[in-house]
Design brief:
Number of helices: 3
Oligomer: single chain
Number of domains: 1
Largest sheet: 2 strands, parallel
Number of strands: 2
Shape: globular
Mean pLDDT: 90
Length: about 80
């Protein structure tokens, strides 16, 4: 896990709540190398809109497979 998780009692990333506030119910994509199931659960519980949280391997960066996932329409 990345160093930015410190201080989150439930294991979510420090960015998660801020991104959900910024999205304000709008659909959004979040691409990061530190996204976990805790982030996915929190977004599902606190964001009424569509969202895709996509974890990228920091050793390889974005790959063709990642771009294929990101090109798909967001589902409700």
């Amino acid at each position: 896990m990345g160093r930015h998780r410190a201080g989150s009692a439930d294991g979510r990333h420090w960015k998660t709540a801020g991104l959900v506030r910024w999205a304000a119910g709008r659909p959004f994509l979040w691409i990061d190398d530190e996204i976990t199931d805790a982030d996915r659960r929190w977004v599902a519980a606190h964001h009424p809109g569509r969202a895709l949280l996509h974890r990228v391997d920091p050793r390889t960066g974005l790959t063709d497979a990642d771009f294929a996932v990101l090109a798909r329409p967001l589902t409700p």
